[in-house]
Design a protein that fits this description.
The protein has 25 helices and 26 strands. It is of the alpha+beta class. Among the domains are: 101-333, DNA ligase/mRNA capping enzyme (D-amino Acid Aminotransferase, Chain A, domain 1, 2-Layer Sandwich), CATH 3.30.470.30; 535-621, Orthogonal Bundle (DNA polymerase, domain 1); 636-703, BRCT domain (Rossmann fold, 3-Layer(aba) Sandwich). A hairpin with a 4-residue loop joins β14 (338-350) and β15 (355-367). The structure holds 2-(butylsulfanyl)adenosine.
Length: 707
């Protein structure tokens, strides 16, 4: 964690400040808090601890309390939705969430089985059945249902107390809001693992990298980062999944065995991992682990071992716990998947944003059933830390990580002849200077950058690929291969060129290309024409401005409403118009980093001209600006219970159209709770905070519409 930057005014107590000092310190704190907000909310990468952040906020508020004229209209203390205290509320687990003891060797497993027999004092002819199942590499989660309705979702935390992540968990498709079937106990805590599929993780990382956002090391970190979001809509956009495998408090236990419980969990609406089996001896357990180990690389998700659990629940109860782990279960871990191989070369890859990533090109080697030929070296600092040279033998690993990592240089093997020099020139044909990126506070970051921007052909093709990608212009039939080919031939150098392909067809003669016929060329042109009309948010996202991912693009589109309004404002910001800058800053989700990135992008004349040419080819549809003249504009609304006159999505969209903010949980900031039948804990919360509770009809009356 980075400590807040010191400043000469920081050392003064608020009580002792002169008005001038207070003004300076207030402005400095404001800038710093905004930076932290941005790091936290937009990049999932907090730069200070919650306590440090709260201290900054308190000091800021204290200054305003003493010098009220500093509390301007756009003071942070007035900002709706800016959370003064961060972090999540704490939840005490009704039944503690325990962890598992580990077995690493075959001997550990036979010991485990023998211990159980001894403890239960079993006769030699009595066999113990175990459920054997994969150990999912994610985060454990406890979901509490009351009368079948999800009321609280909590992380494990220290096992006794976790964090309330209910609003975020509700966005997971795998987590039912209501349990199904007849066998649902009144109080029912379901436990299991939140995780991310490997393919989803890679795709998310790619999107994040393209938008200049945070890139995660592995699916587990990615799942954790996606869950710890203050804004549930960010979690909703992340592909999180859930496997149920255990339980906490239950007002009645619907089965007598672990295997019966797994089946029951499936019957009430959960995904349970299909790879489970009953084993009756240590040999069968070991065979299971071996078999799952072989399948590991082909599974869609990361696992780091298997778990064995005594099947009979009455025996589980008798066996009980040793400190914080059950005696009736054990995790049999896989050995880290490592292998040694030779670094043939170190290649520098250029990403869309110009970031240079060194990649070790390896002598192909099999690690955990997968042939590995590349391993990331992350950045220049990492190469220096490892001391890796071309020609070295290195250990690589895929321990839960989809992207293989270089762990260390094998010093006993012959070393490469010379230390690796990170190139000073970009490998792109422009051979531009490489610079280290500057991060907030003027420090040098770890990432190196090509300075060629869009003049750099590497960045250009990456940029074009982003432009046509699914979440941007989404042009069918224009993928990586086609973009590269069209670029090489000089047909498409910038986005606007895509839209003039048809009129240049005589010259280009696309159908003469291998793989193209009359029909496919026609289809491609039609697919391009179909995208000549585009929403403002997609258009902004497609431009590929650093730090402008989808969420930010939506915020900008909603904030300005039309391309013209956005474009005019941006040009003013480029011209250093303070008012325009402040206006942009005041938008929800937009902070200094985004504003600077937008200004840099439009500050480059070749970008401006390319955008102009593109705008001439398409029709950009206005975004709906949030209304300010409705009864619910600026208000925070929570919908709960079963809505009968509209779906949840409809209700949310309607409220947002009317300028309201829709939240998943009730707090003292909530203005209205709209409750349908079956509403549970949120009603109680509303009462506690004195929040107005409306029926669906009241809601329609309030917004002046009939149901
Ligand atoms: S059973 C009382 N089953 O592993 C024991 N845990 O190291 C309850 N985990 O915190 C846990 N897959 O997050 C169990 N199939 C599985 C699991 C599993 C992953 C995690 C869980 C737990 C950790 C313990």
């Amino acid at each position: 964690m980075k400590a807040p930057r010191p400043h000469r005014d920081s050392k003064f107590a608020v009580d002792e400040m002169t008005e001038r000092q207070a003004g300076r310190e207030h402005a400095r704190l404001e800038a710093e808090i905004r930076e932290h907000d941005e790091a936290y909310y937009q990049k999932d990468a907090p730069t200070v601890s919650d306590a440090e952040y709260d201290a900054l906020r308190q000091r800021y508020n204290a200054i305003e309390a003493r010098f009220p004229n500093l509390r301007t209209l756009d003071s942070l203390s007035r900002k709706v939705g800016a959370a003064p205290a961060r972090g999540f509320a704490k939840v005490r687990h009704a039944v503690p969430m325990l962890s598992l003891d580990n077995a690493f060797s075959d001997g550990d497993v036979t010991d485990f089985a023998a211990r159980i027999r001894r403890f239960l004092n079993l006769k030699p002819d009595e066999s113990v059945a175990f459920v054997a199942e994969p150990k999912i590499d994610g985060l454990s989660m406890s979901l509490r249902y009351e009368n079948g309705e999800l009321v609280v979702a909590a992380t494990r935390g220290d096992g006794t107390e976790g964090e309330d992540v209910t609003a975020n968990i509700r966005t997971l498709k795998d987590v039912p809001h209501k349990l199904k079937g007849k066998r649902v106990p009144e109080v029912c805590e379901v436990r299991g693992e939140v995780y991310m599929n490997k393919a989803d993780f890679l795709a998310l990382n790619k999107r994040q990298a393209e938008a200049g956002g945070q890139v995660f090391a592995n699916p587990r970190n990615s799942a954790a980062g996606s869950l710890r979001q203050k804004d549930p809509s960010i979690t909703a956009s992340r592909p999180l999944r859930f496997f149920a495998y255990a339980w906490g408090e239950l007002s009645e236990t619907p089965a007598k065995t672990q295997s019966g419980m797994i089946e029951w969990l499936g019957s009430i609406g959960f995904h349970v991992n299909p790879i489970w089996t009953l084993c009756h001896s240590p040999e069968e357990l070991l065979a299971f682990q071996h078999e799952v180990g072989l399948r590991r690389a082909t599974l869609d998700y990361d696992i780091d071992g298997v778990v064995y659990k005594v099947d009979r629940l009455d025996w589980q109860e008798r066996l009980g716990f040793v400190s914080r782990t059950p005696r009736w279960a054990v995790a049999h871990k896989f050995a880290a998947e490592r292998a040694a191989t030779v670094v043939r070369d170190i290649e520098i890859q250029v990403g869309r944003t110009g970031a240079l990533t060194p990649v070790a090109k390896l002598e192909p080697v099999t690690v955990g059933g997968v042939v590995v030929q590349n391993a990331t070296l992350h950045n220049q600092d990492e190469i220096e830390r490892l001391g890796v040279r071309i020609g070295d033998t290195v250990t690589i690993q895929r321990a839960g990580d989809v992207i293989p990592q270089v762990v260390e240089v094998v010093q006993e093997k012959p070393r490469g002849p010379k230390a690796y020099q990170f190139p000073k020139k970009c490998p792109c044909p422009l051979k531009t200077d490489v610079v280290r990126e500057v991060i907030a506070g003027g420090e040098e970051g770890a990432r190196a950058h090509c300075t060629g921007e869009f003049a750099c052909p590497f960045q250009r093709t990456q940029h074009l690929m982003h432009f046509v990608s699914r979440r941007a212009f989404d042009i069918e039939g224009l993928g990586e291969k086609q973009i590269e080919l069209f670029y090489e031939r000089g047909w498409v150098k910038e986005p606007a060129d895509i839209f003039t392909l048809r009129e240049r067809d005589q010259k280009i003669n696309l159908k003469s290309l291998e793989g193209y016929g009359e029909t496919s060329v026609g289809n491609l042109y039609n697919a391009i024409d179909a995208r000549r009309e585009i929403s403002l948010e997609r258009f902004i996202y497609a431009l590929g401005i650093r730090h402008v991912g989808e969420t930010t693009a939506v915020a900008l589109a909603r904030g300005y409403g039309s391309w013209k309004a956005f474009h005019d404002a941006v040009l003013k910001v480029v011209d250093k118009d303070e008012e325009a800058r402040e206006e942009m800053d005041a938008l929800d989700q937009i902070g200094e980093t985004v504003i600077d990135a937008v200004a840099d992008y439009f500050g480059e004349s070749h970008n401006r001209k390319a955008v102009e040419r593109l705008v001439a080819q398409v029709r950009i549809l206005d975004a709906e600006k949030p209304k300010t003249d409705t009864a619910v504009a600026g208000r925070t609304v929570v919908f709960t219970g079963t809505l009968e006159k509209m779906t949840r999505d409809e209700a949310k969209a309607m409220a947002e159209r009317l300028g309201a903010k829709v939240s998943g949980s009730v707090s003292k900031k909530t203005d209205y709770v709209v409750a349908g039948p079956g509403a549970g804990s949120k009603l109680a919360e509303a009462k506690k905070h004195g929040v107005a509770v409306l029926t669906e009809d009241d809601w329609f009356k309030l917004i002046g519409r009939s149901a």
